[in-house]
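seq as requested:
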Amino acid sequence: LATTVLHYTTTEVTPQQPRAEIRISFDVLRQRGPCNFLLFGLGHDSLMWSAFNAGGTTLFLEDPKWADELLWSYRSEPKCLPPGAFLKGNRGCRLALVDLPEEVYEREWDLIMIDTPRGYFNEAPGRMGAIYSAAVMAQNRCGEGDTHVFLHDVDHRVEKTFAMEFLCKKYLVKGHRPLLALLHPLRQG
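struct tokens:
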């Protein structure tokens, strides 16, 4: 915690999200922490998220090579559809992020924040694979409670479409543009 305070008091670089967005995530972390917190994205706010989850597991994933396929591709592939959807080794589902570190697949995540890959220009891969993969992780959760999924920049057309398809607008808990805080309801069990 001291390292984080030192960092933010001695630098002009600040977190990318505005205070209202950070507050939504902070409130959930304060209620659920220490917990398992998975973040798609590594940025100026990484120290802050780690400090907010002191004593928990905070894992950052960042890979500029992620590229995702079209929305329609999952509908014709049984390995993409509930209740049989899975990630690790699922090469049949073009949306599944199958080459993540082993720890990502082995741990149940209490919170997942999607803040990468970028999707605001045509050459950017977008967050479609991360959105789908977060939904599958939340759906396949076996432990108590729900997995909270935070999606940043949901105002982008493609991200919004994928969020509504996989995370479902009716499960929106709290939001602040451009962040949506969602609970994924489609739990097996």
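Residues 1-183 form a domain with the Rossmann fold fold (CATH 3.40.50).
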